[in-house]
Design a protein that fits this description.
The chain is mainly α. The chain has eleven helices and no strands.
């Protein structure tokens, strides 16, 4: 597989990325994103991908089911809303991280992040109450709906 990977096109390397740790440092963000999304990653690989310059790579890492809660916590403060949205949806994001996300929503851009926070069953009631009290009308509506659904 090593030679096939090394001589392969981006498409080939992306297909092989799941089982190729070297894909973590591939020059192509497409290949690094494929590794981040689908690979069984070591802690060092997760750390490297969490700091990747490409938001596509960081967002892909945030949807990987094996990403650790520590890495999800670090990605929760990413400048890109798609990364934060993926963190908010992830089933292994700690409730404390979800609460912290709820307190830092951008009033102009983070409706999708608020929706993901509201839809995550791990989100604590306090986070929903925070969004309800301090979010935009749309963000607050989502949080209040979830609070009603949960009986809060």
């Amino acid at each position: 597989m090593g030679e096939e990977y090394a001589s392969g096109t981006v498409e080939v390397r992306s297909r092989l990325a799941r089982n190729s740790p070297v894909a973590t440092i591939d020059p192509s963000p497409t290949v690094r994103a494929a590794r981040a999304r689908n690979g069984l990653l070591t802690d060092d690989e997760q750390s490297a991908l969490a700091d990747d310059e490409s938001r596509r790579v960081r967002a892909a890492l945030a949807v990987n089911p094996t990403t650790t809660s520590e890495v999800l916590d670090s990605l929760s403060v990413d400048r890109d809303k798609r990364v934060r949205e993926a963190v908010a949806r992830h089933p292994h994001t700690d409730p404390e991280t979800l609460y912290a996300l709820s307190t830092t929503l951008d009033r102009r851009r983070d409706l999708s992040v608020a929706r993901s926070i509201s839809q995550n069953p791990a989100t604590p009631m306090e986070a929903l109450e925070t969004i309800s009290a301090h979010g935009t009308d749309g963000q607050a509506r989502l949080a209040r709906w979830t609070l009603r659904e949960r009986g809060g």
